[in-house]
Design goal:
The protein has about 325 residues and is of the alpha/beta class. Helices cover about 45% and strands about 15% of the residues. The protein is built from 15 helices and eleven strands. The strands form three sheets. It has a seven-stranded mixed sheet, sandwiched between helices. A two-stranded antiparallel ribbon has the order 3-4. Strands 8-9 form a two-stranded parallel sheet.
Length: about 325
């Protein structure tokens, strides 16, 4: 029997508590249907008996309190909702317990932005982590000692797991089901819950909005220029000269401010514009490619797939029904 403790933090997402409980309970039923004993003992665990969520709209009654669970096999940390730093502060009482369980041999898994609470324990320092693509910059600022893997749906390292954004946590849950049971059971669960098993990237869902939450005005000026001149071929030297900074210093400051090299940032801005065009117009691949300043079809395809996980044609067919009908 595997003991699964689903934490119920303050300011957490209700679905990220209910979904894993539903999944592991359903897997127990699948196993019973096949004449096998249930494997998972699933319990909701919190710092108190009742935790109110969404400003009191929902109330979750825990099965056990922290003090009642001395040892478990798996701890699930659901996604937080709202301001992440406030969420961490509200749930400080959970941190020593999570560390204690890990030290006792438990595996720890965070769902989506539950990674913020997991990282606040220090257990992720020096390790890899996934989280929602929209929160990666904030995560890096708060936890510089953790390596965030762009686009990744699941990371696993030294008994610690994390998942990408929103519904990506289903892929992590299925991964855990497969690990604890077997592949056929995980496939059955994926079909029952209509989840695409083995999805490895959340890149196709990511939106790059530019990283301007910094105080370097010179770098912001070059960012604005890049965004206003998407169709042009822009060089690093040109940008450095624009703000009268030596190239090496400019590249260093740009990386520090945006977490991207200059060329990475230029590509991300261009590909984001290409994505919007594929979603909202009937332009063909070459037209979009030229609009965002690329002239080499092969190079455009390689960069596009690297950043989105899909080829330009796959992306257009996925998000533009009108283009598929043409």
């Amino acid at each position: 029997m595997k003991n699964v403790a689903i934490l119920v933090p303050e300011s957490s997402v209700m679905q990220a508590i209910a979904d894993p409980q539903y999944l592991f309970s359903a897997v127990n039923q699948f196993m019973a249907m096949n004449g096998r004993p249930p494997l998972f003992n699933v319990q909701l665990v919190g710092a108190k008996k009742e935790v109110k969520l969404n400003g009191g709209m929902y109330s979750v009654h825990t099965d056990k309190q922290l003090k009642d669970i001395k040892k478990t096999d798996l701890v699930l940390i659901p996604a937080l909702f709202g301001d992440m730093q406030s969420g961490i502060a509200q749930n400080k009482a959970l941190i020593p317990w999570i560390k204690q369980q890990y030290a006792g041999g438990a595996e720890i898994a965070s769902l989506c932005v539950g990674a913020f609470l997991l990282a606040s324990t220090g257990l992720l320092n020096g390790k890899k982590c996934s989280t929602h693509w929209g929160f990666q910059n904030e995560f890096r600022e708060l936890f510089p000692e953790v390596e965030v893997i762009d686009g990744s749906v699941i990371t696993e390292e030294h008994r610690i797991y994390s998942s990408g954004g929103a519904n990506s946590y289903w892929n992590l849950l299925l991964h855990l089901v497969e690990k604890y049971t077997d592949r056929p059971t995980a496939i059955l669960a994926s079909k029952y819950f209509a989840v695409d098993i083995d999805r490895e990237s959340q890149s196709a869902f990511a939106m790059f909005k530019g990283q301007k939450n910094h105080a370097d005005d010179a770098i912001k000026k070059t960012q604005d220029y890049i965004e206003k001149n998407i169709g042009e071929k822009i060089s690093v030297d040109e940008l450095a000269d624009m703000v009268a900074i030596g190239r090496r210093s400019f590249e260093r400051r740009f990386k520090n401010a945006t977490n991207n090299s200059v060329l990475e940032y230029i590509h991300r801005i261009k590909i984001e514009a290409a994505k919007r065009s594929f979603e909202n117009s009937r332009k063909n691949i070459n037209e979009v490619m030229m609009d965002v300043g690329y002239t080499d079809t092969k190079a455009f395809r390689i960069i596009f797939k690297k950043l989105t996980g899909l080829t330009p044609i796959e992306y257009r067919n996925k998000y533009n029904k009108q283009a598929v009908m043409v």
